[in-house]
Each structure stands twice: as C-alpha cells, then as structure tokens.
Amino acid sequence: MSKEVSLEDIVSLCKRRGFIYQGSEVYGGLAGTWDYGPLGVQLKRNVMNLWWKTFVDDREDMYGVDAAILMNQKVWQASGHTDTFTDPLVECNNCQSRFRADHLEGDTCPTCGQKDTFGEPRQFNMMFETHVGPTASEEARSYLRPETAQGIFTNFKHVVDSFYPDLPFGIAQQGKAFRNEISPRDFVFRSREFEQMEVEYFVHPDTWEQAFEQWRIDIKAFLNNLGLPEDKLHELEVPEDERAHYSKRTIDFEFDYPHKRDELLGLAYRTDFDLKNIEKASGKKMDYTVKGTNERFVPHVIEPSFGVERALMAVLVSAYQQDEVNGEQRSYLKLPHHLAPVRVAVSPLLKNKEELVKKAREVYDLLKKQFGNVMWDDNGNIGKRYRRQDEIGTPHCVVIDFDTLEDSTVTIRNRDTTEQERVAISELTDKLS
Ligand code: GAP
Asked: What domains sit in the chain, N to C, each tagged with a CATH number?
C-alpha cells in the first residue's frame, strides 16, 4: 500500500538522486532558485518536448518562436505590467520579516510569533529590473520578462507577414520567466526563476468560446499524457475580481500537490487586450485581414499558459510510489515510459568479469543507438542497482550474466512488477519498444 507522498519525500528524492538542487547551495543558497541535475534536466526536457510535440509539431495551426528575454521597457508599460503586476506586501514591525498579505493566515507573524505586528499592505511590483548597457539611466531600464507571452504578441505581425496563416492559429513559446516573488515556497512550485510553455491562440472574436472549449479538451489530454491521475486534477472558474488584469475569463487547472490543491496552469481569454495595447503604444497596426475579403479586425486571444516546474512537480508526485519487495520497503517512480529520464539501465552481473563486461558493453551500445537515454550501471550489487533505478523511474533494467555468454539471452527486469524475463538479445529492442 502506498502512503500519501509528502513534499519532503519529493524534495529528498530530487536532491539525493540528482534531479533538483537548491540554487547556489554551496554559498548558502539563493531563495527561489533551483538547479537541475543530470536526471532533472532530462525529465524536464522530456516534459517540454512532449508539450512541443503535442502543441506545435503535431498540429498544422501552430508556429513556434523563441524571443529574447530582455525586451524594450515599452513592452511592459503597454502590457500593464509596470503598473499592475504587483502583489500585496506586508512587513512585521517587530522582526521586519516580509510576507505576501494574501498568503498570511491570521494576525500572528510566522517568523517571530508576535501578534498584531503587521503594518499596512503596500503593492510590490514583481518584475526584476535591470539596465541594458553601461548607463543606469531611465531610458536604459529593462526587465527580465515575467511571462513569455509578450515575446509572442510582439512577434504576431512578423508571423502573419511571413506565413499568412488562416485564423485560428497559434504561436507557441517555451522559456524562462522571472518574478521577484515575495515569498518563494513549496519547492519549485513558487520560484523566482522558472520556465513557461505558452500559446497565444488567435481567433475571430465571434469564435473565442469554441476555441476556449477546445483548449480545455486539449489541455486535459496533455495532462493525461503526463501521467497525472484525473482525480487529482480540478478546474477552477476564476471569479472576475481574482482574474489577471487582461482576462475576461480564466480557468485554473489545479492539482492536488502535497502542500495543497494549487494552480498547475491557466487558460485565459485575453480578448484583444494585448494587440490593441501594442497598436496604441507603437502606432503600428496589429489587425488581420481575412484572405479574399475586406474583413479586417484585431484578433482575440485564448492563452493556455503552463508552468514547467509545476507540471514537473505534478509528474513526480503522481509517479511516486511505495511498496514492499521481499519484506523490504521500496520507493519508486512509476513514470510514463516516454518521460523517464533513463529509459533502460544496462548492467553486467559482476563488474570484475571481463567477458561479462564486454558483452554488456555490446548490449549497451545497441540500446543506446535505439533509445538514447540508456544508463550504464555497474555500481554495487544487483539488488542495489535495481533499487536505485526504481527510485529514478527507469522502466527496465537489462542484466548480462553467465547464461548470456552461452545462449545470447539477457534478463529484463520490470520496474513496476519487479518481475524478470529472459529475452534473446536479437529481440531486445523490439521487446523494450
Ligand atoms: N501569460 C500568462 C501568465 O503568465 P500566470 O498565471 O501568471 O499567467 C502562468 O502564470 C503559469 O506560470 C502558472 O499557471 C504557473 O504554472 C507558472 N508560474 C507562475 N508563477 C510561477 C512561479 N513563481 N514559480 C513557478 N511557476 C510559476
């Protein structure tokens, strides 16, 4: 029987096994930043590549872009971020700790434990400011982008002029975003540097509801493909007074994380807010002409916005399992095979037997060509190797033993059932596929 996974289980596994480390840890860390280790970067790429394949490569109506992170400050003035991208900040008058007012429960300071010591909340802008070039002047001011979306809107006209797409069509982008969160927390869930995967889907204003509904369906199918169980996923219709300044309708897709049910991604109807603002601020037309007609208008936008870290955390939480094997406790990641950072591990039964190692190397080379992310593992005894591979979610371990030398068969051991099967090397890649 599996117990409910805790945040500590995930954090500890991620650190121990080389998925995710605290950023700058050797110098005491930098709050809200995280570094991905060898397995974490592979898992993250697998999630991002699946998203790109699903929403860009496999579709005819999507175009990818990769815009600069630093953008002209006018982008953020026009989008409303310089004025309204704020969170309410309160300070404890006793210990000077700072908190996000809407995250506080009660009137006791979580740091010093004193009651009624909070000052008046004030609005704190979450954009990281910097200056481009050698002078720290007002004109040189820029920001690290707080969302990838604006890099899409500013390239809308370029894509239209280069590709003449029919409506509806979408532009997709993946990349880093930065927010100076007042209190980063819950592991990578709320970070100051994170990654987004966003689509701006341009539609005729009359068809936005239809497109919105289709995106709901497409998002659910993708989350299913990530291996997230349906009973842990929930849709929240965000009330008007809690929606972002640009949105006329938003559904938050929430997931039951160990810390609480919380937002995994958002689906928003951004109307023509952004393109109209760009028109006003730049003086350039952002309208679209329907081919073969005189019909011109500024398209409206449906925006599915995914956070990579939140998707990754949901994948880890969903995959984390505990059971008992031969009277011993085991924890393992039941990751979908297409997401596993290591697809297959290959081991010689004994690492000091030259003929076993030679044969195992041949099998390793064969599988590496086929699957790419194959691990050579000869550390410790075979039982320890299985435990380690289980813990990082490797679906199959292939072991080369003395029988292999006689009959060219190997053992495949299954992560989920722990069962072992004898297979001819000539059938191995088919079997694992
Ligand atoms: N372009 C729309 C937009 O950025 P958002 O709801 O502010 O909307 C979208 O962010 C997604 O980005 C969130 O649903 C979440 O997955 C992710 N995200 C936002 N802030 C984050 C943070 N501080 N740390 C990790 N992920 C974050």
From this structure: 7-72+146-317 (3.30.930.10), 342-432 (3.40.50.800)
Three-class SS state of 194: strand
Contact 304, 199 (CB under 8 A): yes
Q: Which two tokens stand for residue 406?
A: 């006689």
Report CA(128)–ligand 1 centroid distance (Å).
Answer: 15
Expressed in angstroms and rounded, the spacing between residue 203 Cα and the centre of ligand 1 is 23
Torsion from C-alpha of 50, 53, 58, 62, nearest 10 degrees = 120
Q: Is the peptide bond before 168 cis (omega within 30 degrees of 0)?
A: yes
Q: 267: Cβ below 6 Å to ligand 1?
A: no
> Over the stretch 238-289, which tens digit does the pLDDT of each residue have?
999 999 888 999 999 999 999 999 999 999 999 999 999 999 999 999 999 9
**pLDDT > 70 fraction of the chain, expressed in percent and rounded:** 99
Read off the tokens for 254. Answer: 């929430």
Using CA atoms, how far residue 68 sits from 34, 64, 136, 154, in Å, is 22, 14, 20, 11
Sign of the torsion angle spanned by Cα atoms 124, 127, 133, 137: negative
For the segment 110-160, what is each residue's pLDDT rounded down to a tens digit?
Answer: 999 999 999 999 998 999 999 999 999 999 999 999 999 999 999 999 999
Rounded CA gap, 307 and 47, in Å? 11
Residues forming beta bridges with residue 102, ordered by sequence position? none
| Tokens standing for residue 53 | 């394949």
